[in-house]
Specification:
This is SGNH/GDSL hydrolase family protein. Helix 1 packs across helix 6. The protein contains seven helices and nine strands; from the N terminus they run E-E-E-E-E-H-E-H-E-H-E-H-E-H-H-H. It is about 35% helix and about 15% strand. The strands form three sheets. A five-stranded parallel sheet has the order 6-5-7-8-9, with helices on both faces. The chain is α/β, with parallel strands linked by helices and about 270 residues long. The protein has a single domain, classed as SGNH hydrolase (Rossmann fold), CATH 3.40.50.
Length: about 270
Amino acid sequence: MRTIYSIIIIVFYLTACSGGSNKSEPEIIKDKIKEDISVTNLAIPDNRFSNTYEIVLFGNSHTAGLGTIIKNLINVGNPYAAVNVVTAGGGFLDNQATKQSREVLLNTKPWTHIILQGQKYSESGAYIYPTAPTKEWIAKAKKNNITPILFPEHPRKGNTEEATRIHLIHTGISASQRACVAPVGLAWDNILAIDPQIPLHSSDGNHASLLGRLFTAYIFYEVITGESADSLPYIEDLNVDEPTQQFLKQFASEAIAANQPCNFES
């Protein structure tokens, strides 16, 4: 085991009262946050082509409502597969209050996939939060032969730079502790660039609407099963019209083709 010392960078902006402004150099503060993490970096277990999918989601409110849609999509895409999806929640991935219960859950069921959402990030970009807790969950999952899928959440409404920044945080995590990275935010950016009025966000401008959850679920469907979301048929009980479903599926598959989520090589 090793101790990870995370560095949090805080940028202070000092504005002069005379009308001009001067910016100080970034102040680096060493925050000794100790996290135990295995030194091993196992290959990503490949559970795509299974007849049994046992999927668990860890994270905060951005995971709400996703599990049911993902299960529905997999059932339609592979009617012969047994599918179980559990949204375990637990909040941010560094949440010590829920760590033990999530560890027990992770170790007591034969999961095939885990979706990990809730890596902290700075909305302003002024802070760099520790990533060791997320890496620890990845390592634990792989040790249990579970495919870890990182979930960089979608951007807030009207924010055109957030998705790329969040995605890069997660690909950085995967670079040192191998995991799949679902290109959720990048896909949202792509579709919003084409159709800025598509209502992917709920009224708070932060969480996903029903349409947004469906779009994100299409991405996870393809990452989990290895099958193209674009090839799914129209699903009437999703309560989304057929042209819109096809539009979302197309953008989900295009985002994955451009940003391969998983490298299963050892």
